[in-house]
Please model this.
Amino acid sequence: MIEDIQRRAEVTPRLTAVRFGDDVVTYGALDESITKYGSVMDRHGLSQEAAFHAGLLHCMPSLTRIEGTSERNRVLGEVVAWLGRDADGGATGGLRAVS
Model:
């Protein structure tokens, strides 16, 4: 999915990647954030997946304010499914938008 975000950021950096509440993040901003966190994760022996999640939360701080662990995980799962909808076969179940 990170490669798909990078590709989209190169082609359409100002295109909205995902929206949640008042937070709107473009592919360009998300890619930049993931890249910056990627170097931090590398220094600490963490995965690029950790950089993806850190970058996403950095760009969309309202995700951190969701009450309850299971609700936060559900919403994060929907956001990740939305972002991965076209990568490697995409999300299943016809997800059209994240509310």
